């Protein structure tokens, strides 16, 4: 995108504000918590939250998290509105798009402006463009070339031959493109429920020369053949689903996988750090992600077993480039950051 001086200044202001929220306000709030709580035994989140809420910086921290998110979407929407109209390159390229005009979007999906993005990503084509630009800035401007998603495919997906890869909740394709680039011989299919982001995903895949099939469907009911996939992936999907939808999505992933097939979901889980876990749980409400605390509290390993998957476990993920780590332990970092983790499982042979 070509940005005017005013657009660039607006984006830079919001981005700098969010960075200072992450690397100044969060450590300050943490220091206040340690000073107030002292060296006591680890507490449950429900007993830690009242201590955090009473800290001097808490109201500023909470207000700025949500306030800066609103500022971000306003700035991004203005930038997108100032861009010249460009037709989507949907047909005539190697990528394809299959939409389902009869698909009803579920109420749990449409009732919230997820991420505080007005109207979500499903309203119209402009909402997809807004989300694409906003998705980079939400990560504090360090994911401009989708480093997180490339690191996920590079480090968390086993290197082997895959006949078919299904990427659930693919959005505008940022998680799907690396899969096709690294596994060019695989039949790669991106599934999402929102038509606008799928159109953008198809356009961008065509411009990159990537033969990816994008399909509009519920991730819990893809309509694909049983046992047809060797790999099922998702990135930042399950924390945005209610518990029944998570269970149904895991069951669908198990159905799609052939015996010996692999599941790799990049998402979030609790860390065991009482302060950080309260901060991330409350991020769900301040960022309009109402299902996030529930998904993070769920026993995903047990849910995977119930769905028919084996050897389920979480391993930590460092989004700064190293990607998948060998255990559920993250490097020590003072600033706010998400507890990225990879849910790993496979379909028994």
Topology:
Blueprint: H1 5-37, H2 45-53, H3 58-81, E1 96-98, H4 107-110, H5 125-138, H6 147-156, E2 164-168, H7 176-182, E3 187-192, H8 195-207, E4 212-216, E5 229-235, H9 243-256, E6 257-268, H10 274-286, H11 292-297, H12 300-307, E7 310-318, E8 323-324, E9 340-346
Parallel strand pairs: 1-4, 2-3, 2-5, 3-4, 5-6
Antiparallel strand pairs: 6-9, 7-8, 7-9
Helix pairs in contact: 1-3, 2-10, 3-5, 5-8, 9-12
3D structure, described in words:
Helix content is 44%, strand content 16%. With 349 residues, the chain is of the alpha/beta class.
- Quote the average pLDDT: 94
Global outline: globular
At the first level of CATH, the class of the largest domain is: Alpha Beta
Order of strands across the widest beta sheet? 1-4-3-2-5-6-9-7-8
Alpha plus pi helix count: 12
Rounded to the nearest angstrom, the radius of gyration is: 20 Å
Q: Helices and strands: which structural class? A: alpha/beta
The proportion of strand residues reads: 15-25%
Q: What characterizes the major β-sheet?
A: 9 strands, mixed
Q: Segments where pLDDT lies below 50 for 5+ residues?
A: none
User: What is the name of the CATH superfamily of the largest domain?
Assistant: Vaccinia Virus protein VP39
Distance separating the two termini: 48 Å
Tell me the number of structural domains: 2
User: What sequence of helices (H) and strands (E) makes up the elements?
Assistant: HHHEHHHEHEHEEHEHHHEEE
Q: Number of DSSP strands?
A: 9
Q: In the CATH scheme, what's the topology name of the largest domain?
A: Rossmann fold
Specify the helix fraction band: 40-55%
Gross CATH architecture of the largest domain: 3-Layer(aba) Sandwich
